[in-house]
Amino acid sequence: MYVKICGLSEPGHVAAAVEAGADAIGFVMTRSPRQVTPERAAELAAAVPGHVLTVGVFRGETPEAVRAAALVSGVRAVQLHGRHPHADFTALKDLGLTLVRAVAADADLRCGAYDEDLLIVDAPRPGSGEPWQWGAVRGRPSGRWMLAGGLDPANVAEAVAAARPWGVDVSSGVETAPGVKDADLIRAFLTAARRAT
Predict the structure, then answer these.
(1) 122 is annotated as an active-site residue
(2) pLDDT given at position 129
(3) Exactly one of 88, 122, 152, 169 is catalytic; which is it?
(4) Is 115 a catalytic residue?
(5) How high is the pLDDT of residue 16?
(6) Residue of 6, 88, 111, 169 marked catalytic
């Protein structure tokens, strides 16, 4: 089970995620309680070993703004969240980074349909932390796709059983308050997600 821990902003939480075996770590560089600057993301990403994918998360920014932030931060992947057009992905292809498309379940759920490398299927209200009907997408997404939205250590096994994703992505489910991560919850989530496979 591929596991991404998103919205990290503190070195200790980055270290906890890496040590617990996260496959990917997300840095939010768009308006959010979890937002970090590209410069801060660069500091955090510098401590992440090469086998863990560092992801810059954007929502609504222009390809030019995404490109600039990605280059400053040094992330190895760019995630465009929401209804970004195909042209936004095409415009970033030459960066040579892993491209991630994050959408709600009513979008095109074929991984690669927008030339992305990874797909995230998120809740109708991304970032809300609210569980949703995970099983409704079972059998629909194709390729390398992650389930997100309302996941936490207590329910990730249920969500995996319902949707059968390739991976899972968590942010608010490992927090004690909006934007405040908890190392114990990060470790618990990774343990639960791996047991769910």
Answers:
(1) yes
(2) 75
(3) 122
(4) no
(5) 97
(6) 6
pTM for the full predicted model: 0.96
Q: What is the secondary structure of the chain as a DSSP string?
A: -EEEE----SHHHHHHHHHHT-SEEEEE-SSSTTB--HHHHHHHHTTS-TTSEEEEEESS--HHHHHHHHHHHT-SEEEEESS--HHHHHHHGGG--EEEEEEETTS--BTTTTS-SEEEEE-SSTTS-----GGGGTT--BSSEEEESS--TTTHHHHHHHH--SEEEESGGGEEETTEE-HHHHHHHHHHHHHT-
> For residue 130, what pLDDT is reported?
79
Distance CA 77, CA 116 (A): 10
Q: What is the mean pLDDT of each successive set of 10 residues along the chain, which is 197 residues long?
A: 97 97 98 96 97 97 98 98 96 98 94 97 80 90 96 96 97 94 97 90
CB of 27 within 8 A of CB of 36? yes
- Among residues 76, 66, 20, 68, the alpha carbon closest in space to that of 44 is found at 76
pLDDT of residue 124: 83
